Amino acid sequence: METKHLILRNWQESDAPALYQLCRDETLRKSGVAFLESIQDAEEAIQFWAKGDQFKAIIHRESTELIGFISLGDMNRYEGYVELEYAIAADYRNRGFATEAVKRMVDYGFSELGLAVIAAWVRSHNAESTRVLEKCAFTLEGRLRKHARDQSDTLCYSILREEWESMTISGV
């Protein structure tokens, strides 16, 4: 999948060192990204993610670097209800890449996978991520107090298929 600045592609074994470096970022760890303790851990994660089409590496089109990841994962709710997760490397933040990747993944989820709901949970102190979700037309559903492992609040967002369809029809 492509956007103006990004390529969202399946994982490759050669992505492991870059993924490991990405996951060492303290800001991402505070936002809930799993900590990978070694390149071997990254390789194992990639082997798992490579089994499905819903876990994508985010590649910067110009530099061809791995700059993040994005996924639509099963939340064990019902068929068609998934959770969106994403992360962008520090050097590439605040440049619109997360918004671009999220919009493309949402389009993919609704148009190609036939999803009903895409939810996203974000820690309340992660203002950058909440801005991304709001730019992508997600609705704040509520706050789970002291829900995260660090005892911070979790904000729950979602976008419904019919909301996406009305935006697509109206050209938003």
What is the string of helix and strand elements?
Answer: EHHHEEEHEHEEH
Distance between the termini: 20 Å
The portion of residues forming beta strands comes to 25-35%
Which CATH architecture would you pick? 3-Layer(aba) Sandwich
The main sheet comes to: 7 strands, mixed
* Order of strands, widest sheet: 1-2-3-4-5-7-6
What can you tell me about this protein's structure?
This is GNAT family N-acetyltransferase. It comes from Aristaeella hokkaidonensis. Strands 1-2-3-4-5-7-6 form a 7-stranded mixed sheet, sandwiched between helices. The protein contains 6 helices and 7 strands, in the order E-H-H-H-E-E-E-H-E-H-E-E-H. The longest helix is centred in the middle third of the chain and has 15 residues, at 97-111. The two termini are 20 Å apart. Helix 4 (97-111) links the parallel strand 4 and strand 5. The chain has helices at residues 16-23, 26-30, 39-49, 97-111, 127-135, 161-170, and strands spanning 6-9, 55-60, 66-74, 81-88, 117-123, 139-144, 154-160. The protein has one domain: Gcn5-related N-acetyltransferase (GNAT) (Aminopeptidase), CATH 3.40.630. The radius of gyration is 15 Å and the shape is globular. Helix 1 crosses helix 3. The chain has 172 residues and is of the alpha+beta class.
